């Protein structure tokens, strides 16, 4: 094309038309997306989008290093993986001294039936999609798409392994990437916390004494019973705290080694901060920080201008509020601490709805717009569901 002024103007006009069409198509796609996210079917996509935005906002350029047994820093990927392998081999194969309770176990020799096609078919249906591939680099979606052909092939392969007592060497090796542990203890059973509390109450009742000498004697007896069953009492992590302590009350020792003593506002028990003055202000402040951390993770959704207030409130109640209330059903809150939680929550809701205190909007209206009830009511409901034990 000749570079004349006429052609140049025509090119610019065509470029403007293309940009307008692209902008219209993009706006239409965004409108359809936000309309779908405002429905019950689109809620899963909303949470998936929030998680993806949180991952995209993190710095992925991490320096992955680890120290060997001599304290030298390893930087190469191969040496890091080798050290992880050595560590877990030692961790999982080390036998602690313990009392042998099972003797004379008889082995049962019985012919194993062949693997059936219906068993393989059920196993394929139970496997979730989107999982990481193994050494063969074949995702599970491929086997599901192949249908009966995959069932016949896998059944034949598994039976050959079963009959020959040999398996591919690739199956014996696996590699997983390191990941940061970001969650606490998962309770698989609703009764687990209560059973644990009953056992711990009984143990602590036996250990608790009036003088330090009796405490040390019972602590040593506790250590002996645990280590006889193959468990170890960590000397570096074991701590104790005195409530209403008097001056010059001495120390507690375990096997001649002094147990670490923690002071005011510094003791943690099962994830909760315990204070020697029986207050819970430190724990409330920690829960407020946890709420803000959860709010920042879904910031892109909560502050999205085209996302409805109802959806914002629902995301807030399912992501942010549980982080603030976690563990507080076992804490007797005072008015001042309840007010501290309420202030933090209203600040988050105002940020999400795009208003400030200068707009002079009543708190009830802010909560009603986001369909979020008062925090005290939610805490009471949580307590009723879990049957919290109040201190």
From TrEMBL:
Residues 1-26, 41-61 are annotated as: Disordered. SUPFAM superfamilies: DNA/RNA polymerases. Signal peptide: none annotated. Residues 1-13 have a biased composition (Basic and acidic residues). It comes from the Eukaryota. This is Reverse transcriptase domain-containing protein. It comes from Hemibagrus guttatus.
């Amino acid at each position: 094309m000749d570079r004349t002024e006429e052609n140049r103007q025509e090119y610019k006009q065509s470029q403007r038309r293309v940009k307008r069409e692209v902008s219209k198509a993009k706006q239409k796609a965004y409108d359809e997306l936000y309309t779908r996210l405002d429905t019950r079917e689109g809620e899963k996509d909303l949470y998936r989008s929030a998680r993806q935005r949180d991952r995209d906002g993190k710095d992925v350029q991490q320096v992955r290093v680890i120290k060997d047994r001599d304290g030298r820093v390893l930087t190469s990927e191969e040496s890091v993986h080798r050290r992880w392998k050595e560590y877990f081999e030692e961790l999982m194969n080390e036998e602690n001294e313990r009392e042998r309770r099972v003797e004379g176990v008889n082995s049962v020799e019985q012919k194993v039936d062949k693997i059936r096609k219906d068993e393989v078919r059920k196993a394929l249906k139970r496997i979730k999609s989107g999982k990481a591939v193994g050494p063969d680099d074949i995702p599970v979606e491929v086997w599901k798409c192949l249908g009966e052909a995959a069932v016949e092939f896998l059944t034949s392969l598994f039976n050959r392994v079963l009959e020959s007592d040999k398996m591919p060497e690739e199956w014996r090796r696996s590699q997983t990437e390191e990941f940061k542990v970001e969650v606490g203890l998962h309770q698989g059973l609703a009764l687990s916390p209560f059973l644990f509390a009953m056992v711990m109450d009984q143990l602590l009742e036996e250990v608790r004494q009036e003088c330090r000498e009796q405490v040390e004697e019972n602590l040593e007896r506790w250590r002996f019973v645990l280590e006889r069953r193959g468990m170890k009492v960590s000397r570096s992590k074991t701590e104790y705290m005195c409530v209403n302590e008097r001056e010059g009350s001495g120390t507690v020792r375990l096997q001649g080694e002094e147990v670490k003593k923690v002071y005011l506002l510094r003791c943690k028990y099962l994830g909760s901060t315990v204070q020697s003055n029986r207050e819970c202000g430190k724990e409330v402040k920690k829960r407020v920080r946890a709420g803000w951390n959860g709010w920042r993770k879904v910031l892109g959704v909560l502050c999205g201008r085209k996302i409805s207030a109802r959806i914002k409130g629902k995301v807030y109640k399912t992501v942010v509020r549980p982080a603030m209330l976690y563990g507080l059903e076992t804490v007797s809150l005072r008015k001042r601490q309840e007010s501290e939680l309420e202030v933090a929550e209203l600040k988050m809701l105002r940020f999400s709805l795009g208003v400030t205190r200068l707009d002079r909007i009543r708190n009830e209206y802010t909560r009603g717009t986001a369909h979020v009830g008062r925090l005290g009511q939610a805490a009471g409901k949580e307590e009723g569901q879990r049957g919290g034990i109040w201190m």
